[in-house]
Every structure is written in C-alpha cells, then in structure tokens.
Amino acid sequence: MSMTISGSTNINVPAAAKQAGRQQKTQSGFAGQVLKCVQAGGQKVLLCQDALMSYASPQTGESVNIYRSKNYSADNPVYLLKGLDKDGREFEQEIHAQEIDPHNCSYNELMVLNLETGHTSPADYLHAVAARDKAGIQSFFQDKDFAACIRAVMSDHRQMGSWDSYLSYDKWLQKILDYARGK
C-alpha cells in the first residue's frame, strides 16, 4: 500500500502499520474515539479524537492525549493527560497549568501551557516540536529549560534572516512567560 503526497512522493506503509478509528475502552477505563496505530516494531500508540490535543512518538511509543479535568476553571486550570508511556503502559496524570515553570518543565507541560495560552494552531504545535528537537529530549516526560530551547530556535531563525518565524516564536514565548509570571 502506498500513498501519494503532493503528487510526486510515494510513501510505502507496511502492512503492520494498521490504522482504525473506533470507540474503545481501555484497561484504566477511559473511553473515547481512539486511533490505534501499530508500527513495524510492534509499539502501539493511542490518539484520542476527543482530546484537546494528541501527539505520539513512533520512536519511543509514547502517546499523550490532553483533556481539561472535570474540575477545570479559569481559577483552577487543571488538565488531565492520558496515554501510553514508553513501556506501553497506560497512564493518567493531572497537571495544574499555573504551577508549570517553562524554565524547567516537560514537553507535556509545555503543551499544557500551549493550550492554556490559546496556542492551538498547527503552527503553534510546530513551534513546540522545534523546541523539543532543540532540547534533544528522548521522552515527552523529560524536564528541560524550554524557554532557553525556544530562544535557541529563535536564534537560528535570526541567523537565517527568517524574521517572520523569529517574531512568531517571540510572540509565542512571551505569552507563555507572561502566563507563567502571572502565577
């Protein structure tokens, strides 16, 4: 099976890489629309369509779905993360957005800050991916100074003369830092 992207590039998808969207209830009891992908190495990731944001790493097998908790309010911005860890075990974790320090947080916490500050566009997601790449982390759960990583990405764009991207990253970072200072 292959698919064409932009009319010219063929990507072969192995038969082991099956994708099926269906209603599923997992062992820990959370249910929702789940897209289950099996990669060639046998790692499974769960991406839930009802989540505010979902992402996965085919390298580690980690997958994360972010929801607002039942207790969420503007004064109590608590998010619930559900997914699979690198060992394929289901996890659930609550994160309070106002307690996140962008100078020492995980990629998951950075994504919660993205949601809490209204940065939910594909461009905002790509900003976070570039910062994660610059951080060189191996896990979504690993802490790093993401503010410094974002600044490093900004420096790359400044050196390339990519001023639109530089300004976009700067606006994104400032909103995250302003939110964090407002704790």
Explain this structure to me?
This protein has 183 residues and is α+β, with helices and mostly antiparallel strands. It has helices spanning 107-116, 122-135, 146-160, 163-181, and strands at 2-5, 9-12, 19-25, 31-38, 44-48, 53-56, 63-68, 78-84, 90-96, 105-106, 143-144. Strands 6-7-8-9 form a 4-stranded antiparallel β-sheet, with helices on one face. Strands 3-4-5 form a 3-stranded antiparallel β-sheet, with no helix packed on it. Strands 1-2 form a two-stranded antiparallel sheet. Helix 2 crosses helix 3 and helix 3 (146-160) packs antiparallel against helix 4 (163-181). The chain starts with a strand and ends with a helix.
Present the secondary structure layout:
Blueprint: E1 2-5, E2 9-12, E3 19-25, E4 31-38, E5 44-48, E6 53-56, E7 63-68, E8 78-84, E9 90-96, E10 105-106, H1 107-116, H2 122-135, E11 143-144, H3 146-160, H4 163-181
Antiparallel strand pairs: 1-2, 3-4, 4-5, 6-7, 7-8, 8-9, 10-11
Helix pairs in contact: 1-2, 2-3, 3-4
